[in-house]
Structure formats: C-alpha cells, structure tokens
Amino acid sequence: MAKKNFWADGLQFQCQGSAKCCVSRGSYGYVFLTKTDRKALAKHLKMTLAEFTETHCELQDKIWKLKESSNADCIFLRDKKCGVYEGRPTQCRTWPFWPEVLNARSWRKDVVSFCPGVGKGKVWSAKEIEEQLKAQIASQNNYGT
Ligand code: SF4
C-alpha cells in the first residue's frame, strides 16, 4: 500500500507577515520567475515586460530570477513587507507548499523551524495543498520562458 503523505490530513498555515521567506537563506534565496510572473509584476509596477525584465531580472543558467540586492534580501522587500504583494510571483504565493519541502523531514527542518506561519490560522486541505504544489511545479517547469 502506498505510504500516506504526511500532509494527507491537511496542514495549518497562515502567513504572519514575518518576511522570513523574503530574505536569503542559502538555496532558497532566489526569486525565480516565469514569463507569467514577469508580466504580472510588470503590470503591477506599470512597466512594460521589456522594461521590467531589463530593470529587475537576470538570467541564471537560462532561468529568469529577480536581480539580487546588496544584502541578498528580495529587492521588493520594504519595511519587512512585500512591496509588490498583489503582483508577487508564483513561488511567493505557493510558499510553503513547494515540492522541495513537502516531505516530513524538510517540512520540519526548513519550514517549521523558521516560518512563524506554520500552525496558525487556515487549515489547508490535502486538495488545496495539492493545487498549490501543482502550481509551483508548473512554475518551476517554466522558469526559462
Ligand atoms: S516578491 Fe514579495 S513575497 Fe516574494 S520574496 Fe520578494 S518581498 Fe517576498
């Protein structure tokens, strides 16, 4: 019998606005972008896609990401809040339901230990978590577009 996902009965998470996921922490320090993400951010900032890409993005191994700030925090972080919240990219919307951390060990090590949103507010059903997970995986498959 297939092993049950540790999140099969749902997970409780609600963003507490700590901005801890918006500052660099090793491998999770980059904000990767699909073309849809770049378009949404450009629209939010009232820029053309070309202007936004030229000003705020760079290619790394054929993958688009936000340029880095001098202190490695996200360039859109303002007073510990997202300065582009309505237009924020998929990886920010789907956190913490990423394929890299949706296993019991990584969830404990990389999410529970540092994100104050875990165990607060909304209980996400397995179906909702799966939707977030799918959106994030689709996004990861389109970073180069
Ligand atoms: S775009 Fe907003 S939510 Fe995403 S890392 Fe930057 S400040 Fe945080």
Quickly give the structural class. alpha+beta
How many strands, which pairing sense, and closed or not: the largest β-sheet?
A: 2 strands, antiparallel
Low-pLDDT stretches are none
Total of DSSP H or I helical runs spanning 4+ residues: 5
Which percent bin holds the helix content?
25-40%
Fraction of residues in β-strands: 15-25%
In this entry the ligands are:
iron/sulfur cluster
Question: What topology does this entry show?
Answer:
Elements (H helix, E strand, L loop, with lengths): L10 E3 L21 H10 L4 H8 E4 L2 E4 L10 E2 L2 E2 L7 H5 L9 H9 L5 E7 L1 H15 L5
Antiparallel strand pairs: 1-6, 2-3, 4-5
Helix pairs in contact: 1-2
The chain binds iron/sulfur cluster.
The site of iron/sulfur cluster has 10 residues, from loops.
Question: Which terms summarize this structure?
Answer:
145 residues, alpha+beta, two-stranded antiparallel ribbon, two-stranded antiparallel sheet, 6 strands, 15% strand, binds iron/sulfur cluster
Report on this structure.
- By secondary structure, the chain is of the alpha+beta class.
- It has one domain (13-140).
- The protein has helices spanning 35-44, 49-56, 90-94, 104-112, 126-140; strands spanning 11-13, 57-60, 63-66, 77-78, 81-82, 118-124.
- It has a two-stranded antiparallel sheet. It has a two-stranded antiparallel ribbon with strand order 2-3.
- A hairpin with a 2-residue loop joins strand 4 and strand 5 (81-82).
- Helix 1 (35-44) packs across helix 2 (49-56).
- The chain is globular and about 50 Å long.
- The N and C termini lie far apart (39 Å).
